[in-house]
Design a protein that fits this description.
Elements: H1 12-26, H2 37-47, E1 54-56, E2 62-63, H3 64-70, H4 72-83, H5 87-113, E3 115-117, E4 125-128, E5 134-140, E6 145-147, E7 157-159, H6 163-186, H7 192-210, E8 215-216, H8 224-238, E9 246-253, E10 256-263, H9 286-302
Parallel strand pairs: 1-5, 6-7
Antiparallel strand pairs: 2-4, 3-6, 4-5, 8-10, 9-10
Helix pairs in contact: 4-5, 5-6, 5-7, 6-7, 6-8
Length: about 300
């Protein structure tokens, strides 16, 4: 793992063009010229339902600033009771669901469409399930966005001049949202390192969800080493030391590869009765982990 997340020597124009062309060539649902935030998110969701940030003209949920003050602590308590687990073990699992509804989509929008919604904490609207976990996070369709290309159909789009500027905006947005949440999780015994490890892991999941089918190594132009450097640089901009909390890795079999995220923090799920360690957990030996992901790759290849 790199020590500083510095990508100043990388040609980001070439790196992102190669990555995005691989996505478009490999997955027809991502080979689209989306012109609005709704169309971009819809394309991601149709490609993989894990990209589930909702874009709505009138979000119906409770604004996050209000929800966290009024309902967060109760939701954690009731979820902990439901899981029959201590708060320190249940709260990180609860957080992972929230992260999946938000951060994975934000990074997916940037990686595929060079688009970053300019969000504050109050722009998020939260709804929950009967199990007290977040079921939906929605944002307004007219949310201001940053983009690299002109979007004539979007009145509040700001065109930026380069990838570095866009990445700074993305890091600022994720940092802003995470810093608004983190004190609440601290009150529920979630350490800062675990909180940010969870949040940044969900950012990295954008890669494995974009590449949700085996990648043909003979035709792909996507460079994992470069993309991992980009991800670690983004993580470091979001949180000091963030570059060391997760790593994008791959396994290969025959002429195919599968990308995955290895965590360097444990979400503590295995502490709950009936739960096991995640495949990507840092508590699993690297060679064992590679074997598990390789098995999944072989199974996927057999179905092609």
């Amino acid at each position: 793992m790199s020590s500083d997340g510095n990508i100043s020597s990388i040609d980001l124009n070439e790196a992102m063009a190669n990555f995005q062309s691989t996505l478009a060539q490999t997955y027809p649902t991502l080979d689209v010229e989306a012109q609005t935030l709704e169309d971009m998110q819809l394309a991601l969701n149709q490609h993989d339902a894990f990209f589930r940030l909702a874009i709505e003209s009138a979000p119906a949920g409770t604004p996050a600033t209000i929800w966290f003050e009024d309902q967060f602590a109760t939701a954690i308590d009731e979820f902990s009771d439901l899981m029959q687990a201590k708060t320190a073990f249940a709260a990180p699992i609860w957080q992972k669901t929230l992260n999946a509804c938000l951060f994975t989509s934000l990074v997916g929008l940037r990686l595929r469409f060079n688009c970053v919604p300019d969000l504050s904490f109050g722009d998020l609207h939260i709804e929950t399930n009967d199990d007290h976990r977040v079921s939906k996070i929605s944002i307004a369709a007219n949310t201001p966005i940053y983009a690299l290309t002109a979007l004539p159909s979007v009145a509040n789009a700001t065109q930026l001049s380069c990838h570095h500027e866009l990445d700074r905006k993305l890091a600022q947005v994720i940092k802003r949202l995470g810093e608004a949440m983190q004190p609440h999780f601290k009150s529920q015994k979630v350490a800062a390192k675990l909180f940010w490890g969870n949040a940044l892991y969900s950012c990295g999941l954008a890669y494995s969800k974009l590449f949700n089918q085996p990648i043909n190594t003979l035709s792909t132009k996507a460079n994992l080493i470069v993309q991992n450097q980009w991800f670690q640089s983004l993580s470091e901009q979001i949180h000091p030391g963030g570059h060391a909390l997760n790593e994008i890795k791959k396994v290969e079999f025959k002429s195919f590869q599968k990308w995955f995220v290895r965590r360097e923090t444990c979400c503590l799920k295995y502490k709950i009765d009936g739960k096991a360690k995640c495949t990507t957990c840092n508590l699993i030996e690297p060679h064992t982990q590679i074997g598990l992901v390789e098995t999944a790759l072989k199974q996927a290849i057999s179905q092609i």
